């Protein structure tokens, strides 16, 4: 059974601070602002909400919501717009969740089964489907092994005191490094070392190598021990690095939103896509989570992205190979649509990858 059945926010907050009327007003305000991109006034809320109270009462409630930090007034005499806190409360407490319509589910499932067992096309299709269905930018990382696992090592002589180390891991990734030898070494000597290490390290993870009691492995000395250290360092770096490749789609959907006419807000969006360390820190946190995760604006540790929201989920076979997928857009996002889209595509990829690995979907 998949874990995409509930929304799990990145940060918790007190959810018992609003009266039923305030909750209703906030819900109407968020929904109308998401739809119109215009500040929402008391008259609009009165018209849409059928609350049975006057505009003056609604204005008083809006003032209370503003004082509590759920809405803000961008301009004097203007209506209100939701804050990050307001969006978070809406997503956790007020939003009505819905599954994707069955006709859309069938169409998406049919598209995936047409390209069965082609991982690269699955990634591209996932990104395209997420972007098109949610009308937002999408991000998809390929599933990768939970632990880097050794496959093959080659040491190639460049000159008497320089060699090229080529390390291949079980996921097919290739890693190269130029190494200076302590003394002149011929290709034959380098080949002997690589052959020895290939035998000793075959199909092992970093932890299995480091915990081995094999005397041939624990007894490595001099240049052999140096090469082993380089291999372990590369494998450890691979385990720490979550963003090798990111499949993207749908940026034009986001750029067409009125928020990103502002150059500073547009720059934030581009920085998320291009700033590897920021994106990696976000995705690494998501990988070990369960269910759909939502980052709204700059809440938590990501204040530099205060005008952007992300709806993300891990997918794959937990403990074997996992990736991350999701969408990115303005904080004025159709969260219910985004969540149902990410949940469904992630669940579908769970099933497809479980079939590839010959296990039951989790």
Describe this structure in words.
The chain is of the alpha+beta class and 362 residues long. The protein has three domains: 14-94, Winged helix-like DNA-binding domain superfamily/Winged helix DNA-binding domain (Arc Repressor Mutant, subunit A), CATH 1.10.10; 102-141 and 243-357, GAF domain (Beta-Lactamase, 2-Layer Sandwich), CATH 3.30.450; 150-240, Heat-inducible transcription repressor hrca homolog, domain 3 (Enolase-like, domain 1), CATH 3.30.390.60. Helices cover 48% and strands 18% of the residues. It has 14 helices and twelve strands. It has helices at 20-36, 42-49, 55-67, 84-94, 102-114, 119-134, 187-201, 206-210, 215-218, 222-240, 251-255, 263-274, 276-287, 335-357, and strands at 7-9, 71-72, 81-82, 137-140, 144-145, 150-159, 162-169, 174-180, 247-249, 292-295, 308-317, 321-330. Strands 1, 4, 5, 9, 10, 11 and 12 form a seven-stranded mixed beta sheet that branches. The chain has a three-stranded antiparallel beta sheet with strand order 6-7-8, with helices on one face. A hairpin with a 4-residue loop joins strand 7 (162-169) and strand 8 (174-180). Helix 6 (119-134) packs antiparallel against helix 14. It is elongated and about 90 Å long.
């Amino acid at each position: 059974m998949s874990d995409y059945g509930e929304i799990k926010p990145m940060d918790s907050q007190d959810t018992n601070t609003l009266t039923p009327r305030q909750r209703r007003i906030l819900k109407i305000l968020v929904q109308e602002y998401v739809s119109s991109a215009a500040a929402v006034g008391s008259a609009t809320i009165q018209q849409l909400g059928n609350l049975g109270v006057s505009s003056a009462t609604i204005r008083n409630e809006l003032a209370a919501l503003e004082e509590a930090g759920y809405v803000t007034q961008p301009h004097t005499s203007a209506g209100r717009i939701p804050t990050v806190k307001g969006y978070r409360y809406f997503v956790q407490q007020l939003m009505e969740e819905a599954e994707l319509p069955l006709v859309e589910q069938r169409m998406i499932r049919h598209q995936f089964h047409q390209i069965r067992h082609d991982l690269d096309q699955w990634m591209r299709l996932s990104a395209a489907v997420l972007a098109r269905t949610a009308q937002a930018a999408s991000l998809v990382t390929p599933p990768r092994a939970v632990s880097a696992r050794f496959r093959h090592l080659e040491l190639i002589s460049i000159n008497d005191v320089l060699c090229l180390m080529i390390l291949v891991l079980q996921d097919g990734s290739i890693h190269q490094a130029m190494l200076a030898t302590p003394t002149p070494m011929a290709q034959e000597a380098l080949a002997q070392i690589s052959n020895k290490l290939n035998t000793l390290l075959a199909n092992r993870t970093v932890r299995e190598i480091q915990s081995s009691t094999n005397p041939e492995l624990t007894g490595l000395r001099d240049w052999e021990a140096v090469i082993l250290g380089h291999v372990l360092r590369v494998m450890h770096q691979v385990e720490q690095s979550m963003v090798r490749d990111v499949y993207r789609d749908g940026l034009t959907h986001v750029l067409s939103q009125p928020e990103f006419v502002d150059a500073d807000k547009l720059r934030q969006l581009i920085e998320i896509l291009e700033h590897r360390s920021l994106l990696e820190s976000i995705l690494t946190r998501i990988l070990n989570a369960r269910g759909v995760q939502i980052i709204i604006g700059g809440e938590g540790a990501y204040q530099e992205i205060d005008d952007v929201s992300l709806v993300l989920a891990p997918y794959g076979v937990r403990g074997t190979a996992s990736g991350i997928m999701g969408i990115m857009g303005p904080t004025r996002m159709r969260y219910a649509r985004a969540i149902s889209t990410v949940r469904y595509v992630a669940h579908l990829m769970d099933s497809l990858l479980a079939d590839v690995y010959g296990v039951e979907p989790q």
